[in-house]
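Subject: two folds for Thursday's group meeting

Dear M.,

Sorry for the delay on this. The cluster queue was jammed most of the week, so I only got both jobs back this morning. I'm pasting them in the order they finished. Each block is the input sequence followed by the predicted structure tokens. Could you check whether the formatting survives your parser before we put anything on slides? The first protein is the one we discussed after the seminar.
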Amino acid sequence: MSKEFFEAVKMLEAEKGIPADYLYEKIASAIVVAAKHDYNGKDIVHCDIDPEKQRIKVYVRKNVVEEIEDEDTDLTLEQAQLIRKSAKVGKTIDIPLKTKNFGRIVAQTAKHVIRQGIREAERGQMLKEFQSKNQELLTAKVTNVDPETGNVTLEIGKNEAILPRAEQVPGEILRVGDSTKIFVVDVKEGTKGPKIMISRTHPGLVRRLFETEVPEIFDGTIEIKSVSREAGSRTKIAVFSKDEEVDPVGACIGPRGQRVSTIVDALGGEKIDIVKYSENPEEFVAAALAPSDVCDVEILDEGAKSCRATVPDGQLSLAIGNKGQNVRLAAKLTNWKIDIKPESGFYEG
């Protein structure tokens, strides 16, 4: 029995990544809790687990007394000397218990506490693992797609997480077996274990993809100043180089556009505008309105951060974008309210 028990613990350690020592501690506690029932809950039962010798020792420690006051905790000298000849009054004696004699109820109790201990350990391990990945980019495998809710179950390492429909890229179809990039927005400890919040729509996903693909961002030469995103459609990212000789936009695009095209592929074809950041708000707003040209940017109210951008008449719709998307993303990127005005001053009807 002992050999099988220790092999089972080793297997749990290998499969679940739970330290064996933690399991032995929980199992010993479970055995003690279960065995104490036979002694009216008195704290006299002990359990020693020795994995090296593959031995489990369960025993009751009783007091050797002249006259018994409590049958659960006391033994007379005569009773004690039947177990150990050297027993003396005033000392204690350890009486071994046979685990197989605990009975069905005790065994069930032990099983329950062991299971609970394993669940707690798993939750602790999961929380630890997820917390180390908070705000990170991960590759996950689709294991299930709920046809009713549209929620997707993803396998992340040894754990699973749910990608809600609201956090999926609009129009994107994920199928069982697909690998996809996700961003860990937050990790919280819930009543039923750790709760991991993941997303494919969060701007952090784009930020991390650029860090992965652009070595100059990873090593700190280029800094991502801000990201604004409407997932599945368009993203704008503002970058700044600490080294004047390094072109931040060119580095992010990469040789023959390879770096940005890898990111576009990971985002399912989402358009990406890479914008050069400037401390000068006029320059920054003008750059943020790409792909439109900008003739001039006028600051209307510095405190309220509002400005007016003048664009060539033929590029008015490009500057505003489909349903106002381009100017909306530029405003989010720069944190300025942007009013668009055609160069002629006349708006086309």
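Second protein, same layout:
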Amino acid sequence: MAIGKRLEKAREGVDREKLYPLADAIKMVKERAKSKFDETIEIAINLGVDPRHADQMVRGVVNLPNGTGRTLRVGVFARGAKAEEAKAAGADVVGAEDLVEKVQGGNIDFDRCIATPDMMPLVGRLGKVLGPRGMMPNPKIGTVTMDVATAVKGAKGGSVEFRVEKAGIVQAGVGKASFSDEKLVQNVKALADAVSKAKPAGAKGTYIQRVAVSSTMGPGVKVEPGTLLG
């Protein structure tokens, strides 16, 4: 079946204008995730912010209670004892100058990047490579830290970084279609709570404006914003 026809069929029964309670929206999205692979369940949250202003930037990290269902490869920039600590915690790639050279050469063999503070002068050279991919280590989200073991375990265990895009939208994967409805609802609420707590001082008016959940290949289902929290 062509993708267009499949999506059209999946849209049957979804009122494009209606706002559904979170639990109902999750159920509808799961019922329509019919691909041969385990589709990712995603959320898009439209925020009342203008990210072009520094005082309206929204970013952070949250540990999803039920993980993401995805195994991340974690790279750590560290030396000596901290490098050994990172390896022991399960980091996939660990290095210093050698790892910087690899990344500069286009060999990025990881999905999440962590660095000890002393490595940042070196890692700073990779801004043009890691920045556009949203992978630059940052102390605000716990990826520049001396506690590399905790950071690595968090990344491996289901921590999700979020950052508002130019259009004022936060998008993130919150699990897999194979997860139970309850686990997906718990994950969405954890993310929404973290986004809510990250509300910047410069945000005026309604902060969480529109919300939709979807699967990788399925249609979006609009969610009542009030059912995200609590």
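Two things I noticed about the second structure. The first strand starts at residue 40 and ends at 47. The two ends are 40 Å apart (CA to CA).

Cheers,
T.
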